[in-house]
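Aim 2 progress update. The chain analyzed this quarter is reproduced below.
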Amino acid sequence: MRNSIKAIIIGAVILATAGTVQIWYRNGMTSFEPPTLEDYPIQGIDVSHHQGDIDWSRLAVQQEVRFALIKATEGGDFRDRKFTENWQGAKHAGIVRGAYHFFTFCRPGRDQARNVIATVPREPDTLPIAVDIEFHGNCDKVPTVDELAAELHAFMDELGAVFPGKPIFYVDEDFHDRYLRGNEAVFPEHFLWLRSIAREPKQQDCRRWSIWQFADNGSLDGIQGPVDLNALCPSEEGFASLFPTGPEN
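Predicted C-alpha cells:
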C-alpha cells in the first residue's frame, strides 16, 4: 500500500502503450518483467486518496484492471476521503471491488472494526475485507506475535458479525516471516495478499497466497501518477464467483 514511487530494486523503466502497462526493474544483472495476462489472467489495482481523481470508466476497458481494492479506513477513526467516490466509481464501471483497512498497532482491534463497519457498505459481489498489516506508516509500537494475534482476533470477532468469512491479510514477505510463518494457527484464518515488489513470491508458487502485489509504481490509463499493481493466484478458487466471465474487452 506504500505510495512511494521508489522501487525496492533500484532502477525502473515504465512503458505504457494503449492502456497496457509494462515495467522492468533492473539491479545489476537481474531484471523483472511483470506477470503476463497469460500466466496471471486476473490482475487488479489497489488505490486510496493518493491516486487523486480516478477515471474508472477508462480503467474498466483495460484487461489489467479486473478488480480494485480500495482504502476505506485506518485505525479507529480515519476514513479515506476518496473511499465513497472510488467505491461507487468502481461499481458503476463494472470492476469487482473490495475495501481495505490499515491496521494500526496503537488502537484496539474492536475500535478499528467498528470504524470499518461504519464506513464500508454491506453489498453483494464484493471481495472480503482486506487488512493492511505493516510497519511502514504505522505507530511506533512493535507488537509481539501474541499481542498482534489477540488484537486481530478482537478485530475479526467484531467485524465478523457484519462481514462474515475470511478476511484478506496484506503483508510483505519480511512481516510474513516475522509474524505469520509457523504461527498460522495463532492468527485468524485468512487469505494472504503478499507484497513482493519486482520478484516472484517465495510462497510456493501461489499455493499459500491469493494475491500478489508485484509493483508499486505502475502506470495505467485513467490514473495520473503511480499505482499499485496486483495479480490473483491462478489457482485461487475462493474468489472465482466474483469474476464473471464474458467477452474480452
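Confidence is low (pLDDT under 50) at residues 3-22, 24-29. The first strand starts at residue 12 and ends at 17. These observations will guide the mutagenesis experiments scheduled for the next reporting period.
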